[in-house]
Amino acid sequence: MATPLRKPFRRAGILAVWLSVAALAGCAQLEQQGQIFSPQPARPPRHAATGPRTDNRNSVQHKELVAQFGGEYSAPAAEAYLNGILAQLARASDTPGQPAYRVTILNTPVVNAFALPSGNLYITRGLLALASDASEVAAVMAHEIAHVTARHSALRAEREREAAVITKAAEVIQNRERGEEIRSSQRLSVASFSRQQELEADAIGVRVIARAGYDPYGAPRFLTSLGKSAELRASLYSKKKSSADFDILSTHPSTPDRVARAVAAARQISAPETGQRDRDGYLASINGLAFGDDPNEGFVRGRNFSHPRLRFAFTAPEGFLLENSNEAVFGVRDADNEALRLDSVRTPAGQSLESYVGSGWVDGLLQSSIKKTEINGLPAVTASARAGEWNFRLAVVQLGDELYRLIFAVRSLNEDAERRFDASIATFHRLTPEEARDVRGLRIGVVAAAPADTISAMSTRMVTPNRPAEYFTLLNELDPDSALVPGEHYKIVIE
């Protein structure tokens, strides 16, 4: 339940708003096959930076941005490797006078990257986990720098101001209805303009990485993986991704047309497999990188959710898929016919649990269902509600200064569903200090395939909340029926 602002939960929430979401809703050598390896640090940059770097990481803008995306993530080997790529990109840049960029890795599993005119380039550990080689991450960084050198942000802001002026003029000169038509037209115009900027940045990026010696096909490969990542997430959680998750797809559309254009741009430069990819070097640099949720901000393991910093845990009913989002913990089951949400609010001063539950924050609350109880020694209140076609079972549990709100939604409430929900509510408990200390986060491990290894065999080693085979193929850019190459290195998710 981490947020970009590092709060455990968003402090507000209305059941009616949630309904729309729910409805969518050891050291071994490299050559030791099948063993997780701990290689030497990533090779040093091939070229020194073209000029002195200006460290702008004490600016207010930098600090606010980093805080919004989970803080800085310390990965010296990965950072040195990425800065080496940046040095090579600088030598091949269309604008050699641009500032020498310096990378900051952000501690978030979402996939994103961006660059600022100050020379700061930001890339999330989620993106590093998804990328498969140096050419792909080089393409991402070159793309983001292209936005800066082409002044895309300033040009887009100017276009938006022009659109606002045109719309206002239409409302004054003609009428409000006509003004709304103009506004819709201008929105499409700005969106088209933004799309053209993305395509331009793609083309610039492909050209720059090729000049730097990297495989220009790294750009379309990463765009393809980005699209597959979004598809997997949508299929898991049966809902569209919220822009509040700050994912790169919020501002960087990944479409078949865009991939095709990137391939066409690469073909104008060289044939496939002619540029540098350095897959082994890249994998060595990210070996051990944290994967998924930061355990200190709560994490999912199957049906279990634990939050070691806030010291609580609970288990969802059988069949639920859980997601730790920036708003709350969400869960879905049975093609959106069942859903759950866990969030928190501050304990209201001078208000009992019963009066809080009945204070109006739940639509359709059945007042007669409010029941005071204890859940594993914690004060709690349970209740039921109905709103439209949905039935709800909810519990509010007090832990310190927080009220944790567990809400289950089901279209057709029966004794079996109610029993499963109540059993899940009964699992909410305070973590002991020993349990909290025992929490281990997930990380990227790199293994060399043994002759008999298959996707299925590798998947049994994956510690992911759901669909390990699909995550293995996604992280390694494989088709489901691909054969593994003995001795080649692959990413897996481990504890």
Automatic annotation (TrEMBL):
CDD domains (UniProt xref): M48C_Oma1-like
Question: Listed GO molecular functions?
Answer: metal ion binding; metalloendopeptidase activity
Question: Which Pfam families does the record match to this protein?
Answer: Peptidase_M48 (PF01435)
A single Gene Ontology CC annotation of this entry is: membrane
Keyword Cell membrane part of the UniProt annotation: no
Q: Which UniProt keywords apply?
A: Hydrolase, Metal-binding, Metalloprotease, Protease, Signal, Zinc
State the residue spans of region: Disordered: 36-59
Q: Which InterPro entries match?
A: Mito/Outer_Membr_Metalloprot, Peptidase_M48
In which domain of life is the source organism classified? Bacteria
Using the record, list the residue span of the signal peptide; answer none if the entry has no such feature.
1-25
Q: Name one GO biological process term.
A: proteolysis involved in protein catabolic process
Instruction: Name all Peptidase M48 domain ranges.
Output: 77-262
What are its cofactors?
Zn(2+)
> What's the name of the protein?
M48 family metalloprotease
What species was this sequence derived from?
Methylocystis heyeri
